[in-house]
Design a protein that fits this description.
Blueprint lengths: L17 H11 L1 H7 L5 H8 L3 H29 L1 H19 L5 H29 L2 H15 L1 H14 L5 H19 L15 H12 L2 H22 L1 H8 L8 H20 L6 H25 L9 H6 L1 H24 L4 H27 L3 H30 L1
Helix pairs in contact: 1-6, 1-7, 2-8, 4-5, 4-6, 4-17, 5-6, 5-9, 6-17, 7-13, 7-16, 8-13, 11-16, 11-17, 11-18, 13-16, 14-16, 14-18, 16-17
Subcellular location: Cell membrane
Pfam family, one: MFS_1
Family: Belongs to the major facilitator superfamily. Bcr/CmlA family.
Length: about 425
Amino acid sequence: MNSPDAASAPPTRARAGARVTATLAMLAMIGPFTIDTVFPAFGRIGAEFGSDEVALQQLVSAYLASFAIMSVFHGPLSDALGRKKVMIGGLVIYTAAMVASAFAPDLGVLIALRIVQGASAGAATIVSRVVIRDLFSGAEAQRLMASVMMIFSVAPAIAPILGGWVLLLGSWRLVFLAISVYALVVIALTVLLPETLPPERRSPLQVRAILGSLLRVGRSGRMLRLAIGSAFGFAAQFIYIAGASIFVTRLLGMGEQDFWVLFLPLIIGMIAGAWVTGRTADRVPRPRLITLALLATLLSAVINVILARLGPPVDGTLGWGALVAVIGPLLIAFSVAVFFSPIQLEILDLFPHERGTAASLSTFFSLVLNALLAGVITPIVMVDLGSVALTSLGFIVLSLMLWGWHLRTEARRSD
């Protein structure tokens, strides 16, 4: 069913075709491309700047931390200025910072530029999610979100592979230039998108109005339970993405061009999960689908622990040890992809007139946790396969607890 507000919007909003879906997916892929394409270059960056693994992980955590802080404001700004202005403005700043990274003289400057990238990238990735809900509601919104996620899911798999291929051409600096070219293409496509928030439906561009919106949404217990629960659920998968450089090179003993061993299973799981989400949009009520997917993630995480503890040893080759080590992450990626889109729509539907703010705060909680994962938790737990698997299991248990709390609260509200 089309969104109730579609009638007040330009006609192009109601005709979201393949081009719009692909553009929204490319906007969403900015995040994974920014993080994962650089992973294969870590070794060369560390060698040139004399930095160890912990210092290099800050290239991820600095990006995620600044993304998290600024994510609080991108959504409210899009509620006031319109979606396109915020997305294009953020992309321009992001591209400039990415080009500058190719000329960074030391690790400190590179980390500073990663902070700028994180602060600006959310304008595209967060607001693109709101555009989907602007265009459609109900099952149609779930299908479109799932379609975008299927395309978006390719990014974590191909980004490190592309990064490894770029390194074959020369310096690690070429990786940042390659991402800049991608960003320019995305800017051009974003310019062609329709504006999905007409002027008459925008909020005032005032500091007091923006802070008031953040306060109203942020103090909602329903929103907090959903947002934090979603963040923990996604962390069960993201810990493998954040620690990919350690997982592939140290735990599996492989090289710069071998990141596909981890990311290909992840992408297969994510695409399959997104496909299931789209196919079940008209058949399974959204809360039931989320519950089933979270339980499936719990089962996948338990299987992952068993395989990590009892599976064959890894020896740096593409043998049984490496294959068994990525079965658990594949299963987790599948079930996480099933619940991710529906739970995001649940959050956006809590605040129909402040969707941008809701998307911002939801992303904020997720990114704070992801930044901690990349900069603090991952270097600690990436000592062996079993420790990583147990950490992933712990995250999904917390997610299930919060979702159960939400369901009980909603049941009392309806009585």
